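S., here's the first fold you wanted:
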Amino acid sequence: MDSEALCSSWGWSNPPEEVIKMAEISGGCGGVEEGVLRELGVLDPPTFARLAATRPGHMTFIEHAAEEQPAKVQPIVEKVAALANGTPFYAQLRILDPHMSMKSPSVVQRCRALDCVLMLVEGTRPVLVFSNHKAMVRFQIMGRQEREREPLVTEAGDVPLLAVGSRDDISAIISQVDSSGDTYSLKEDQVWHSASRETQESDAQRELARLLDHAIEAGASDIALRPSRDGTYRVRLRRYGILVSPRTAAAWSQQMASEIIAVLLNKSRANESSTYFRSPRDGHISYRSSVGDAFLRVSFVPRNHHGDLVPRHSVSIRLFSYSEKRIDLDKLGLPIEAVAAIDDAVRMPNGLILFTGPMNSGKSTSVAGGLGRHAEIYGDKQKRVSVEDPIERYLPDLDQINVPTVIVKEGGKIVDDDERFTLILRGLKRHDIDVFWVGEIRDAETAEFCVSVATTGCLAFSTIHAKDTVLAMDVLSQWVPENKRFQLSEAVNLIVSQRLVPALCPACKRPHNPSEQDRRQWQRYMAIVGEDLALPEAMFRAASHDESGCEVCDEGYVGYSVLCEVLPFDRKVRTAAGALVSRGGDVEAARRAMAEARELTMVECARRRLAEGAVDLPSILYL
């Protein structure tokens, strides 16, 4: 069957390019999985030939390839099986439309049981999309009487076509569809009480609650659950930027780990349909205990190891304070230059205040401090709104909007993942707002939005991933159209780059005179950053617990010290920034002019903290 006839048999009269390509592969493989795999081009010819020559007699080629090349082949096993049998595989269900019967609870319940969804091809022809090929075949060979009683067939109003598709898209639709069927929205965070009867009667929940309580008491920012090949898990806490073993529940047996992961998946609503998934999932939990309340952001990343009988997930839990209170800018430990610059910037009626740095560098906390200062100054006289994905900290004086995991527009069209955030932003342009907080500048549309509102009468806060203040401007300009780069240089009021480094314990830190190796490392660091600062003659170092026996700290550190680089924008800086982002004239001279305008550099701040005895040398080198 040629590709045109195949597309027609799949229900398409005007197929998109991806469907035509899929039909060409399916029609040209001769019904052989090996042929599909070759056409998909995931393996180079030498690897393909080697696998063909070494395939054991008891295994099919695709099984052997998935075992030998799991990272490349395992994710497309269902696609290969479907196309080899002349069945379409929809990697993204957005090219289909939801069937109206998906509003029916009985249909949704049946779809959940079969791990499928009822969709429409070109808005007219019903198609059942299954998460795996074998499940589709079982449905296909169903007897006539059984088929007549099947609710999905009767609700479809016509004999549905059959297809295979993305398990994650199917799971998302099943788990998020509500009873009205008009929207798929994020449900309220589930509150988990550690003192509940359910928790006390479950060994897994008690063990997890003990770990969470310990992490909250210890001031951990993250919990890492790391699976081993045998199914056991190792547990680590991130404190002061370093992974350490907890004093409780440092390792879990296979059975305990499996039960705890199931608890996290259920309570975070990351996988309400309890289906097997191969791509990352996120969820959220509001946790309450006698130790304290916390908001948990839970990330699950499947290992996808071929041969695992039970799915194993690498799990990361981020802990946030759940209390709703204003963040005091003066108590964040920022350098005085950063506090003064932020205080000046929030008093301006418009412009963009940008915080930059790597993950876990405290950017969002500094934004919250800036918003808190703005609320102190203006109170309820101005309207402040944030768009976050997800909300990590609840703040007063701020209308916080959480971006839902799945959005369906009027008419049933699923919004692409990369459009969910910007869809909310576009709606807020008509919302009469004085101050915006855009959680993160992540693409061209969020960058354009921030520039637009900052130059049309609003104050905007946001964050971006960049190494320093000058580079942040360069990175941001890549996302802004060329005809709006002048607006960008005029929009920015302030850029602050920051890092969090472990703070020395004041009770047990030890004096340290710099060695020759310390001096060499410092000189190399100065050469890398292009600055010429002398290493302090008097410093301090961390003392291990064995050395000090300190009861205050953990291996010589307690809390974090904030290092900042501060670049306020005046007319001279705006002119240099305009030359930098427009790529006109001497770009290097523009960079130098911006660098010279910094009120505080990261290295100056680090040296100051070093001289004060707040941090040690290894913590601040090569930031």
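And the second, which I think is the more interesting of the pair:
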Amino acid sequence: MNHQPSSSVAHLWMVLEYDGKLPKGATIAQVILASDKTSLSQFRGDKAAWPVYLTIGNIEKATRHCPRMHGAILLGYLPATKLDCFSKATRSVAGYRLFHECMWRLLQPLVAAGKHGVEMVCADGRVRRVHPILAAYVADHPEQCLITCTKESFCPKCRFHQDSRGEPLASLLRDEDHTLTIVATYTRKGLCPVYRPFWADLPYSDIFAAITPDILHQLHKGVFHDHLLKWCTEIAGENEIDERYRTMLNYPGLHHFSQGISLVSQWTGTEHCEMQQVFMGVLAGAVQPTVIHAACVFHTHTSQLLDALESALREFHNHKHIFVDLGVRNDFNIPKLHAMAHYVASIKSSTNKKDYVAQMTKWLARQESVDQFVAYLDWRLERIVDDAEVASAGDIDDESGEGGTSNADVSVDKQPPTPGDTPLSHVLAAHPPFQALTVDSIAQTFGTVNFFAALTQYLGHAVPNPPSQPQLSVSHWDCFDAYRRLSIPYPRLCPVHMLKLMDQIHAVPYIPPSGRSAGSQGRFDMVLVQTERNINAHTQGMVLEDLQVAQVRLIFDLPMHLRMAGQPFHLALIEWFNPFRGRDTLSQLHAVSRSYAGQAPHTEVIPISRIMGSCHLIPKFGTHIDRTWRPDFIFDTCKTFYLNPWIDMHSFYKFKNT
């Protein structure tokens, strides 16, 4: 789940319009503030800055999150003083009051502008009366408490008692009017006495509703890394967890923790996400089943399935006792764990609960109008679906070493669209990097001993041959051109925001060291392939129906004398895995194993249009990992693998119902 403040721009407008707080024709600029006290020096910890940034929710999310687009401005710096002039007993309260006084001065222009509006020239050239209204404040837990005048041992959004934060109990939410009445002198119920909170005069805003979920500090660095990972590592053993991460299979964009995770001292948000993408597979077999049930809470929710999110959180509370029973935790009085209870309410708090059907009907009508206008612009500017390839040109290298690949240099193999999805285009480099490869050189370079037999079978069965023409046959002297990479644009999924537009599938042979070059390991990615007339009861009616895992060993073109009109000539040599088995009752993961024909892997030549996309497999480690396993040879030593549905957002959204 990734709650974005901008998703409620239209809802905020409707709330104020239906309550009669804004005049007819008013335009809202949804103000989003963010602040974070930052250390400026790693050698001297006493140097710090406290910047405050401002952006608006009317700007598209992807634009706001891209630093080079300058979607946010620096509003100012807050004093990062230690307040040594105050006594230890009053220093904390003085810090609260100083923060609010400075923020009040910074945001003073928003008071009149929010109440009466300001005439501004919009992007379409029209002049509108715009009301800038504070809608969201992005901050970590200490600053959330500072903003809401709440002590750090209490919740900044509700009146939950500080000693009961580990329990799934309901509590009254904090009310801005009630808080303003008592905050100046009241020190109980977790409040700090602040004479004039900066948000007291801001119109049409509720500071407690504006506090958004802090995914980085509350989930990634907080509950997951500081608590759940620590508990599971203590149960399974540090060496066991490290060895499992070291043995994990590679995947594009997935960091390989070659030294394990216990020695890493400085973590980034991206590394936390990459660690979580394989976490359930790492835990499988290493910890008790109840621990698996408790850990699943962080891998089962999406922004669309709010009921599933609440259910997953209840599931964690039902099984959290295992950590106490195993002696790794005494209590769960953790502020960041309690904050997760407010996530669903934060997402749902987009309406004033009045005339819900009328509000949502108007909102949907406006969304349809926007979609129609975008479709008109696409038609007018001739922006077709294949522009995704142009937009991601940085992802498609010219594999011949001559620089980037232009749109005119891309070889495209079209595939018929599937219902509800964008038509997929299989993109290859214009100039194959491996040229004039013989059958013997392919076997030696790519390790594909069955290439000749598989291609002969393909030409004999898959390619129809008219009776008047001789049968096509391949010889050992035929030459083939091969590619390092196949790129497939991801289907456009409205609920999923992905920075990567292209799914890249590699078939790169091993390059031995030579001179100053250290060489490189071979890379043959796993893919999901459309099967033909194979019925699997374990996947029937699911997204995985008619799909089977395979490993791409070679991406190549047929030579001219073996091509036929109307038949594909961009082909791939794959090694099959057996059909999916039933899901594991504990981890709910589908298991697969490599398919063999005798002693050799079961190989087949297929058109690249049958490749639906890449996938990631996690070895089935068992209760204790075999220390002889290595990532480069894992397919020769490990017999069973799990299909990983958490490897990226597209896979998670695609497989969430499997």
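Why I say that: The chain has a mean pLDDT of 79. Residues 250 and 439 are 28 Å apart (CA to CA).

Talk tomorrow,
H.
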